[in-house]
Amino acid sequence: MTARKMSIWAWRLVVLAVLLGTWEWGFDLAKLVLPKAWVPKFLDPYFVSKPTAIWASFLRLGCFTDPLGFSACLAANDNNLWVAMLVTLKNMWWGFLWGTGLGMLTGLVLGRSDYLSEIFAPFIVALNSIPRIALVPLIILMFGLGDLSKIVTAGIVVYFVVFFNTYEGTRAVDRDQIAAARLLGASEFTVLRTVVVPSALAWVFASLTPAVSFALIGVIVGEFIGAERGLGKLIIEAEARANASEMMVAIFVMMIVGILLAIVVRRIQGYLLRWQPQFDKS
Fold this sequence. Notes:
Layout: H1 3-33, H2 45-48, H3 51-61, H4 70-76, H5 81-112, H6 114-128, H7 136-143, H8 147-171, H9 175-183, H10 188-225, H11 231-240, H12 244-272
């Protein structure tokens, strides 16, 4: 590890320690030096809990401290932390998959056809102007409280993000490269496979990292409104009990999952776009 990398990691740890320390003891220290009315609400443990309380809630929700044992604790609660996380991740994955696939497909088709683009552009703009979250109650009404409604919600949220990036990336392909490929006898499918798709991949991947977060948001919002299991249901149940530490556990789990998925997308992007200078490690 270079000296620069070590310095960066050292500063990251310092910032993390300051943040956690302020979070843990900031409210108590602020009460000592400030009038009670002036103490910031974002330091109040009632609203944001404390790192130590969140860790204790994580151990309890994760069945690590249950006197009956880990397996018995899991069996006794059908929406424990691990089941809730797996349900949310499963719905997010399927929603992300179909939203991304459909968004890329329609983006490529409309990006390559001016005629079709002019026909469908007003409809796409009209649909995109609808806040996706406003559709969640309607989706739940149509598909029920089960997993399907969460998958549909996540896919709809993801679709437009991926579609517009794919569309713009397809339109931005160098026309000279397309002309050169056709001059060499390439068919339309060959042009699409060897010129258009590789050139548009950078645009597509630029949308995939936020699309992962949007898919998770779509699932969680759906679980807020109505769900049988999931992290969103855990948050709503904790909110009903005014238990900030349990809410923060679910939030941190989602944050960690989002970070890991973003890293995976970035690694796949680096592999598929290794021919580009910014990803070339040679």
